[in-house]
Amino acid sequence: MANAAALSQRHSVVAVDVDPRRVDMVNAYQSPIVDVELEAYLATKPTTLVATQSLKEAVEGADVMLVATPTDYDPETNYFDTSSVESVVAEALESAPGLVVIIKSTVPVGFTGSLAEAFPGACIVFSPEFLREGRAFYDCIHPSRIVVGDRGDVGASVGEMLASVTVDGDAPVLQTGPTEAEAIKLFSNTYLALRVSFFNELDTFAATFGLDTRQIIDGVSLDPRIGSHYNNPSFGYGGYCLPKDTKQLLANYSRVPQNLISAVVDANRTRKEFIVDQILERKPSVVGIFRLAMKLGSDNYRSSSIQGIVSRLQARGVPVILYEPSVEEDAFNGVEVVNELAEFKRRADVIIANRHSAELEDVSERVYSRDVFQRD
């Protein structure tokens, strides 16, 4: 959605989604995701952006197609499930064989090469994206870098197209081989997971020995080589990308010596166990889960770390209720949803929140959180 909107600043764009509700929202210039800058852009009613459920209709007459379908990690195969990418590419090339296909979905190392072999003569380029939840449109027009997995003229034109809609116009454009581009994405997210894990383990140490987590992090982060960014403790790294991308990178290491990557995966599991033990020390009768989203200003809670906490509490037989206004059902993954905030506060004697919220200040003595900086 963010890419579609950003590109529509200078190009005609047709967005495709299987969900008719989302299609209707885009055609009404409403954002289907929580993203402040995206919402503001759509409010200008860009006529260069329309949406449809028909992929065939969308690629008719198109020069370029971006594919951003889900690639969930399959624990049984120890691999990303790339079937949605493959089916979309096959359907699109059947209708428009001359199409330049740009893969934005995160894929295993080596996937683009195998896809190109499956469609000889097709122009398929992998270009990873580095977007934050809730700030995806901003990151599209203010990118940290543009990586294009093609060293030739096609890669140059793709990089030029993506750079043409940026605000500053000075984002570095890096042309690489397709496999190197895939590795850049996986190693980038694994480093972020490693950094989250490091500060979480620092916090675990401090909590265990009764130390002031914030003072330690402030002192460590004053070293300019470390920096004071991305250092706020949490319930573990989560979201749609970091857990699955780290596991996929570990799977790609099957024949390569390593210790660190597997330690990052293990550290996230250990952190969640520690958090649960800390909660249980309070001997709760009912644990309230305040919101599922990982970050402030986002409604995306796919694979959020707090869900791992919930499942562990359930496994220990602890009654759990959930406050999450974006969930309209009466239950979520077997957890009762209580979306009347006053009732939620009344029933839960321990409330866990991954991030600080002013809505909980009146019950702060019952809130458990590791958010020491009150920011993402």
TrEMBL record:
Residues 288-375 form the UDP-glucose/GDP-mannose dehydrogenase C-terminal domain. The keyword Hydrolase does not apply. The keyword NAD applies. InterPro entries: 6-PGluconate_DH-like_C_sf, 6PGD_dom2, NAD(P)-bd_dom_sf, UDP-Glc/GDP-Man, UDP-Glc/GDP-Man_DH_C, UDP-Glc/GDP-Man_DH_C_sf, UDP-Glc/GDP-Man_DH_dimer, UDP-Glc/GDP-Man_DH_N. It is an enzyme of class 1 (oxidoreductase). It catalyses: UDP-alpha-D-glucose + 2 NAD(+) + H2O = UDP-alpha-D-glucuronate + 2 NADH + 3 H(+). Pfam families: UDPG_MGDP_dh (PF00984), UDPG_MGDP_dh_C (PF03720), UDPG_MGDP_dh_N (PF03721). Its EC number is 1.1.1.22. Keywords: NAD, Oxidoreductase. Pathway: Nucleotide-sugar biosynthesis; UDP-alpha-D-glucuronate biosynthesis; UDP-alpha-D-glucuronate from UDP-alpha-D-glucose: step 1/1. Belongs to the UDP-glucose/GDP-mannose dehydrogenase family. This is UDP-glucose 6-dehydrogenase. It comes from Tessaracoccus lacteus.
